Amino acid sequence: MSRGGAFVRLFGSAVVMQALLSAASFVVGLILIRRTADSQYAYYILVSNAVLLLTSLQFAFVQPQMVSRMVRLGILERQRLIGGLYRDQRRLWLLISAVSGMTIIVLYVTGVLAGAHALVMFAAIAAGTASLFRDFFRMVLLARRRPDDVVRADLVFVALLVTGVMLATLTSAPAATAALALGLASLAGGWVLARILWRHEPWQIDGAAGILRTFAPLGMWTAAGAGVHWLFSQGYNYLVAGTLNIAAVAALAATRQLMMPVSLLSTGIGALMLPTVSGWLNQHGPQTVLRRLLLIAGGLSLAVICYFLILWIFRDWTFTYVLKKQIAHRDELLLLWLGVFILIVMRDQLLYLPLACARFGHLLALTCVCAVAALTISYTAMTRMGVIGVPIGVMVGELINVAGLIALSMRETRRRPEARMTNHDLHDEANRQALNP
What is the pLDDT of residues 226-270, one digit of tens each? Predict the structure, then answer.
């Protein structure tokens, strides 16, 4: 297969993977919204977001350095690298699970945690550990450019997850059972991935002793970036649960869920954007790149608005027959999420110019500022306005992010042409993009 054909296949598989996982997430949310109490749906949202944090930290810590090493190693060295990483991480997974489990037992015995809450948290530990297992082997197979194998394993994961969540709604503890279903689906998907990798390139479990520690100097920075980004994009859920109530988490998640399909457009093309922008940067310079990214961001924003207009016209029908929920401040929340998602699709595209220029320190600082601003304003607004104050804070954070990315991009346009990076530099730095996932 030609290089162009292989690239198209990789890009197509990346879009299929993202579409599959996004569709599964949407379906799972829809099932729980329709068939469970608001509190049970909200608990599952908190569990799934905690799992997202764990997998984001692992991805940011491991993936960039793993990929940069794998492309330079022969087969035996790769086997030792993968085996060493798997062994070290497996020990870490078990340690974290054991400590977390003992903490929950102590809190339950001392009366701090109710039995129902402890059950959800135990299920969350199982889901988190299994998700880390699955995501590690996804990273390795994608690094070995085997996206078709990943798609097949993802199909197993999605089928089991959707089925498990559907069955969970028939139980007396749907949130805990759904979290357990997430863990079982992740375990099965990870097992399939591991077997595929073993047949293709078996790892050496006793190889590369202490490899995870050698990743720490750079990995701590990349993980910090991922953690801050999660705090910015998902941290408000826990702030709401602690400040307002669990039903408010459900209201925010349900209305935000309706806007999620449009994010697939931005996420789907994301797999192609960094190498494309890197090529544009070398060929045409930052001014042309910025103009093109602004055009793409504008087109995606227009698509978001068109989708929202259709949703707005049919919102009564959607909430009555699709979600089967009546949510206070429904219209206000939808309008606010519209503003948030317009800014999100703009941010997703404008990110690539500073990223291609390896401005990781600036991006991390900008994300920190946005996270602090978003959470501070969300908290202040929700204490005065209730649940509708939360997306206002998120919107302000995203607005600062977009403005900061435009400022960073404009700074690149004023730099001398010879200050741009070479193709080799861009390839190396692209592997470290997890500083601002």
Answer: 888 888 888 899 989 888 888 889 889 889 988 887 776 676 666
DSSP secondary structure string for all residues of 96-160: HHHHHHHHHHHHHHTTSS-HHHHHHHHHHHHHHHHHHHHHHHHHHHHHTT-HHHHHHHHHHHHHH
As given in the structure block, the two tokens for residue 307 are 């989708």
Gap between the Cα atoms of 259 and 343, Å rounded? 13
Phi-psi region of 68 (alpha: psi -120 to 50; beta: other; left: phi over 0): alpha
Query: Does pLDDT of 1 surpass 60?
Result: no
Single pTM value for the model: 0.83
Predicted local distance difference test score (pLDDT) of residue 427? 44
DSSP 421: P
Q: What is the pLDDT of residue 421?
A: 44
Tens digit of pLDDT for each residue in 197-217? 988 888 887 876 788 888 888
Question: Which 3 state secondary structure label does DSSP give 291?
Answer: helix
Q: Which of 171, 162, 211 is nearest to 189 (CA)?
A: 162
Place of tokens 């993980």: 223
Inter-residue contact 340 to 401 (CB < 8 Å): no
Q: Give residues with Cβ within 8 angstroms of 285, minimum separation 6.
A: 413, 417, 420
Question: Which tens digits make up the pLDDT trace of 154-180?
Answer: 999 999 999 999 999 999 999 999 999
Asked if 249 contacts 241 with a C-beta cutoff of 8 angstroms, the reply is yes
For residue 292, count CB atoms less than 10 angstroms from its CB and return exposed for 0-12, middle for 13-18, buried for 19 or more.
middle
Helices and strands in the chain: count of H runs, count of E runs? 18, 0
The answer to whether the CB of 345 falls within 8 A of the CB of 268 is no
What secondary structure letter does DSSP report for 259? T
| Number of residues that this document lists for the chain | 437
